Amino acid sequence: MAIRDTGTEQLIKDTAMRIFFAEGKFNATTQDIADAAGVARTVINYYFRSKDALFKLVFKEAMDDTKRRLDEVLLSSMPFKKKVVTFIDVFFIELNKYPYKESFMISEINSQSFVMPDDRHSAALEPFFKEIKQAMDMGEVRKMLPINFVLNLFSLIAYPLLTRPLFKHMLEIPDAKFEQLMQERKKMILELLFI
Amino acid sequence: MAIRDTGTEQLIKDTAMRIFFAEGKFNATTQDIADAAGVARTVINYYFRSKDALFKLVFKEAMDDTKRRLDEVLLSSMPFKKKVVTFIDVFFIELNKYPYKESFMISEINSQSFVMPDDRHSAALEPFFKEIKQAMDMGEVRKMLPINFVLNLFSLIAYPLLTRPLFKHMLEIPDAKFEQLMQERKKMILELLFI
DNA sequence: TATTTGTCTGACTAAAATGTCAAACAAATA
DNA sequence: TATTTGTTTGACATTTTAGTCAGACAAATA
């Protein structure tokens, strides 16, 4: 007989993603996930064999998803500056839906058992570097190693959101204020990156 | 009788710090730490009562240590630009000794059980903001919210080191090359922050 | 030296989490 | 409808990890 699609497999993956990336419970157990999904814990073994296998799968799919979303922007035919603006927006939306995703990824990547999937080289990066160089030649952006432009872009967007709880406390600002600050940062980042 | 200082308590703390921050083993067990320190696992209970208590203590001491080191720079009487340069250097040295410390902190802060210690407000921050404003008025740095200047400073330094394994792979660069890139970033960051 | 007392250890207990399996259940199909 | 087969469940077993405790050990000191 063919495989029956009861939606359970997807439900478990979605629930795991929610728990990890939206709720920030990095050390969730299989029981936690099963409870949240409303299924018996053993279905996780049925569909994914082991906890580890589920975790690895969810991680890989999350990485691929992010990559796809960002590549789509990088490979589009927008003019350079508009592309960067869109890139920032997409990044912000992603981090709004899954505030802990980035942090989770970093933990995983930095962990011992982690092995980087082979296909991590983005095909979108190479041509984007060319565009950066062009923009530099045209005096649109400050001259530096194109790699540093990309690093700066990621850094300026992601870091404040990663360390959000720390900074919110250090600077004694409430949620709404922080949100507003982040919106202002979007503009500021552009002004910083472009001349 | 007085407490005998056998150095074991400190040894355990140092070992835990090494395992967490230098080796990146975030999920180390008490057995792992005891083995690495060359003591029986139960001494951890003897000195720290529970695993949780040890973890909390190590975390707090690490936070305090970082804070002290950075505050020292911020409160010094150097001229503004030199202060920022020194700040960047200190940050780099710290992240060189304990590459995973920042990542560990972020995980912890983002975790459920985490409660922020009360005394997190740095007395050094207030006067530093004043200095930033002055530098802006003097046209030394780009005009923006002083808070954004600080966020940018942290972001540009820390993020690439946090995501090091990811970027190293994505960009296919070996260790030495990455190290060199980070050194170049120091200069680039200054050029970006100062006019 | 004898005693006290802080330090350390190994054996045991307890708790938490993962994995296995037989059987129940339900959807497809003969 | 009867049978097949994919799905789901609960009971049980295993593994992993943390905590307790009595006693061994060793440094201080009376």
TrEMBL record, chains A, B:
Domain of life: Bacteria
HTH tetR-type domain segment(s): 6-66
Pfam families linked to this entry: TetR_N
Positions in coiled-coil regions: none
Transmembrane segments: 144-162
MF (Gene Ontology): DNA binding
Residues in the DNA-binding region annotation: 29-48
InterPro entries: Homeodomain-like_sf, HTH-type_Tx_Regulator, HTH_TetR
Alphabetical keyword list: DNA-binding, Membrane, Transmembrane, Transmembrane helix
Name of the protein in its database record: AcrR family transcriptional regulator
Lineage of producing organism: Bacteria, Pseudomonadati, Bacteroidota, Sphingobacteriia, Sphingobacteriales
